[in-house]
Design goal:
This protein is of the alpha/beta class. The protein has a single domain, classed as Alpha-Beta Barrel (TIM Barrel), CATH 3.20.20. It has 18 helices and 10 strands. Strands 4-5-6-9-10 form a 5-stranded parallel β-sheet. Strands 1-2-3 form a 3-stranded parallel β-sheet. Strand 2, helix 9 and strand 3 form a beta-alpha-beta unit. Helix 1 packs antiparallel against helix 17, helix 12 packs across helix 13 and helix 16 packs across helix 17. The protein binds D-arabinohydroxamic acid (HDL) and zinc ion. The site of zinc ion (ZN) has 3 residues, from loops.
């Protein structure tokens, strides 16, 4: 007779472990203009704005909706997607319901007044402490961009960063659509040229090294389109091969690539207007083979890329799949991705990140993910026990703490 319930042991392992969330768009209260929390931010999350664009009141266009003040947008989204005449069962809608329930609020309220009053009753620091504690999160990795006017000014002034928020140097604004970023980089003192010359590459490597050090960035990240081809004469491929990968190797920090985004397929939806495409994973084989000393954190946006990403991880130990990103962050797909990753990679991957943009989202993104991930682990541990492995509760705690603690690369 087994001496303990695996299901109970897995649940306890998650309860005993404070999560390390390795990709978010969250910022500490000290970065005030970038700190997003509370009902109006939560309801106007671009996922919900996109879903509301399908359920707008007669006579209200998306363009007209976009001109409304945020509080009015939040009220309309609340009426159309929650109070309205259909159940809030999309993942983003369910998320708001979970958040409100976790905060002890009535998710079936007729308006947002109770949520707004609750949010107003706490300081940003108190709200942050409460959300981290309720969500069981130890720390979150940010998305930091020195070329963002608001954020760059904070770093130049000097900003006190809550140690629960780790920095990540995001590269899209510095490397994509060259030479558009050149002026801003020169404004920061980097003598880049319009052409992709050795001088430009050297100055961009200096930019990366300077800001990794300034921010104590744990990795460098970039989002790339599905047609990203390496090697190629495309400017972004030249940037990756002459700037990012050599810098990652020199600094000994991971290069994260988030691939498959087709930007602004419908611009009127603004930050909700992006879509996805399948990437040719042979590019990753070439990158991992050409840069064996670099650790690549990889998350791909197309469901059709997931199994082959696991296989590529088996071929290259420096390929580290992480998370169920964006359009994959839904229970039906999280379940499938976690199972195939465990089957093909064992414990050598990071199962999830939240990608949270609004602090409150930590309360649902992790709750929902663990609800669907835990049973997959239970099934695998049951198979392990059935195969004759004398499994212990300490084994389970060790695995969960490692895989949801940033994996072998991060902490
Ligand atoms: O590029 C990214 O990091 C993506 O996560 C985008 O921010 C995207 O808009 C998003 O929020 N996905 O969840
Ligand atoms: Zn993101």
């Amino acid at each position: 007779m087994p001496d303990f319930s695996i299901a109970e042991a897995v649940d306890k392992a998650f309860q005993n472990h404070a999560i390390v969330d390795i990709h978010t768009h969250l910022y500490p209260a000290s970065m005030a203009a970038l700190y997003l929390a509370g009902p109006d931010e939560l309801l106007t999350y671009h996922y919900l704005k996109a879903e509301c664009s399908r359920m707008l009141p007669d006579g209200v266009s998306v363009g007209a909706f976009n001109t409304m003040p945020a509080a009015e947008q939040a009220d309309m989204i609340w009426q159309q997607l929650f109070v309205g005449d259909s159940s809030p069962i999309s993942e983003a809608q369910l998320g708001v319901v979970t958040v409100m329930s976790r905060l002890g609020l009535n998710p079936r309220a007729k308006d947002l007044s109770e949520f707004r009053a609750f949010y107003a009753s706490k300081t940003p620091e108190e709200y942050t402490d409460m959300v981290f504690e309720k969500a069981g999160v130890a720390c979150v990795y940010m998305t930091n961009d020195p070329l963002d006017d608001t954020e760059g000014a904070m770093w130049q002034r000097g900003v006190n960063i809550d140690p629960r928020f780790k920095a990540v140097l995001r590269l899209d604004s510095a490397l994509m659509n060259w030479p558009a970023p050149a002026d801003k980089l020169r404004g920061l003192g980097y003598g880049v040229e319009e052409k992709l010359s050795d001088k430009t590459f050297a100055e961009l490597r200096r930019y990366l090294a300077d800001w990794v050090e300034k921010m104590d960035a744990r990795y460098m990240a970039i989002s790339l389109p599905p047609d990203f081809a390496y090697p190629s004469a495309d400017s972004i491929a030249l940037m990756m091969g002459n700037v990012v990968y050599p810098t990652a190797r020199e600094l000994g920090i991971p290069s994260a690539m988030m691939i498959g985004v087709t930007r602004q397929v419908n611009p009127v939806l603004k930050d909700g207007g992006d879509s996805l495409g399948k990437w040719d994973i042979a590019n990753l084989e070439r990158i991992a083979r050409d840069w064996p000393e670099v650790d690549f954190l990889i998350t791909l946006l197309s469901r059709e890329n997931q199994h082959e990403l696991c296989v590529t991880g088996r071929k290259f130990p420096n390929v580290h799949p992480f998370g169920c990103w964006w359009f994959l962050n839904n229970p039906s797909i999280i379940r499938e991705m976690t199972a195939e990753r465990l089957e093909l990679l064992g414990t050598s991957f990071v199962p999830q990140h939240s990608d949270a943009r609004i602090l409150d989202q930590l309360l649902y993104k992790w709750t929902h993910s663990i609800q669907v991930i835990a049973p997959v682990f239970v099934e695998k541990y049951e198979s392990l026990r059935a195969a004759g492995w004398p499994l212990t509760q300490a084994d389970i705690q060790r695995d969960i703490s490692t895989m949801f603690g940033g994996g072998k690369l991060l902490d």
